[in-house]
Amino acid sequence: MTTGLFVDGRRASSLPLPDRGFAYGDGIFETLLFRGREAAWLELHGQRLGAGLERLGIPEPPWRTHLVTSLEAADPAPDRWLAVRLTVTRGGGPRGYGPPAEPIPRTVIELSPAPRDPLAAAAPLHTALAALRWACQPALAGLKHLNRLEQVLAARECRARGLDELLVCDTGGAVIAATSANLFALHGDVLTTPDLTACGIAGTRRRLLLETLAPALGLTCRVQTLGPDAIETADGLFCCNSLRGIVAVGRYEQRQWRDDPMIERLQVAYREALCASVA
């Protein structure tokens, strides 16, 4: 069986209530890619999860143990790709926004088949600029916290417009990310991704690209404010997240791109690193 719901490492058919994650979005989550029982870049996910829990003041539960017991119970085939959502909430507590003084965190793990083969080439994305803008909140910027209504609204707009992705700006007009992925723009040998100190999610694949994959190919990496004009003038554009990997943008508004050799090299390097990560 390769699907299932697990609460604190035990198979469950429902979520226990009360829970502050359900009531207030009080928690952090990670979306992991597994092949069989092996997680891709588990350390990067663990470091981001730990940093997020520390910022929210939630004790870190034994989530690694819960992952192991959940995967043992699910018993996926060794070559089966899985999407695993790992959620840590503050757990239960009294009514009201104020968190309990000594919270007992709760781990919820959801297993499902990966939406696509991460080693297969994906078609270039058709994108445009979203009408929606994301609010700026530096206290939560970079975190993959449970409050995702802005992404829900962006995804709804994307579907209504018949696009593969939308690029979303903050309230100041700076491009932040795609609806469910980080964004990179290529200008010559300079690879730039938006600064996320005000809002957005600092993805694990974004970190992998900035620290490892892009420098290995001789690219200079920059994290800075990007306006829509910088997107239109880019030599190449791509999105990345944990389940899709690196996917090129083929069209943004009226601007179109052909296959870019450097983006293709990054995609090859990513797939090779992915295979090594889950070996």
Automatic annotation (TrEMBL):
Swiss-Prot/TrEMBL keywords: Folate biosynthesis, Lyase, Pyridoxal phosphate
MF terms (GO), sorted A to Z: 4-amino-4-deoxychorismate lyase activity; pyridoxal phosphate binding
GO cellular component: cytosol
EC number: 4.1.3.38
Membrane-spanning segments: none
InterPro entries reported for this sequence: Aminodeoxychorismate_lyase_IV (IPR017824), Aminotrans_IV (IPR001544), Aminotransferase-like (IPR036038), BCAT-like_C (IPR043132), BCAT-like_N (IPR043131), Class-IV_PLP-Dep_Aminotrnsfr (IPR050571)
Cofactor (UniProt): pyridoxal 5'-phosphate
Subunit structure: Homodimer.
Designated name of the protein: Aminodeoxychorismate lyase
Organism annotation: Pseudohaliea rubra DSM 19751
Species classification: Bacteria, Pseudomonadati, Pseudomonadota, Gammaproteobacteria, Cellvibrionales
